[in-house]
Design a protein that fits this description.
alpha+beta; 7-stranded mixed beta sheet; 6-stranded mixed beta sheet; 15 helices; globular
Amino acid sequence: MSERRIRRIVIVGGGTAGWMAAAALSRLCADGATRVELIESDAIGTVGVGEATIPPIRTFNAMLGLDEAEMVRATGGTFKLGIEFVGWGRPGEAYMHPFGGFGADLDGVKFHQVWRRLHDAGRAGPLGAYNICETAARRGRFGPGDPRAPFTRMTWAFHFDAALYARFLRTFSEARGVTRREGRITDVVRNGATGFIDAVRLEDGGLIDGDLFIDCSGFQGLLIEQALGAGFEDWSHWLPCDRAVAVPCGHGGEPPSPYTRATAERAGWRWRIPLQHRIGNGYVYCSDHISEDEATAALLASLDGPALAEPRGLRFTAGRRRKAWVGNCVALGLASGFLEPLESTSIHLIQAGITKLLALFPDRDFDPRAIDEYNRLSNLQMEQIRDFIILHYKANGRVGEPLWDSCRAMAVPEALQRRMDLFRHRGRFFRHEEELFAESSWLAVMLGQNLTPEGYDPLADLIPEAELDAALGGVRRAIDQAVDAMPAHAEVISRFCATPEAA
């Protein structure tokens, strides 16, 4: 066994980030040579409003060996097939950003290009009709789909109670050797020679030393910022919303839908996330355009059922730490930065940070090349997700409202502007280095918000119309048949993963 091996890992903060990290690192406890300890205080609340996920969460759960039905049952979860956006384009419009792709490419030509050719001629349905997740979501159905063709295989994620997910992972982690220490940190002890963190001191005087520290302390960045001064890059000039108010409510008698909803409002947008036992609701807004009292009143007036708790306010600044890994400290979750939950990426960014940490896991020498690569990849991913979220604001159609007018007029990052310009010409799009959002995601938002290309790929004209008609008709029939064979979303939950509280 290497003498340079990491023996003591200290996770500062619990919540979703802390317990996801603990669960993933618990494998290091197996031989008894490494200690993983998590410090959290019951007196410090967690943000805990992120309740919607994206499909890679299933990869993380599978890596841990979690049973999907058990996890859904324990967290009051439902299944998620996409996000419906209401009011982001022209008045009265709505579109869906579904999981999975649209149709299948034909003779090397992208599906949306041949679809556009037929759609312009009035011989194709809406693009969402060629996506199995959107078709199932709009019909309230859920199932694995038909695996015989790529366009009839379902892709899904979850809505769940983030606090219950953290509790579920805590049980998992502690059963595998992770220890939890109750307490509030009052001091960070640094090494005078290296600048690394040697230990953290608790309010009761206890000193907890470690080789590797994981900062999951939330917005305050107790280790990464307050102790190590990583710095923060402010993105509020592109993402001006700086407040949120959240409140859960009852279902109002309706079965939970298998999709999230994001509804644009005059000063921001509202989320609606259906769980088994309640609906999560929130209003993300810009404080320059609405007061907290006004935002709270607007949110309460929109609920499907009675409020189940007092509204809770949050303050934030969109942006990221300049470095998420400094010395022997790695920041995860809100400690590493914040992007509003418009595309449900908060929990994914925790997962991505953990995955990169495992891939570049250090010994006590802390190779600076590995640290630099971690930071490069983290910064790149945050920028790519940031640009995707900015697109929603930039391409809005809400004319005559100050927030939205200013967003439409703002200059956006160069990489995003290039993409938009390229797409406007002939609907072309290219993915970049290990980018999270697929071409189909960009396509859904761009077309959904009326960023309509001037034309389509000329190669689409080389395919005979009869062949195009047959291909698109076949895709749509196969999707309809696969969805027709699925049970209702609520029935799947009731049969396989209903939580006792919801029942």
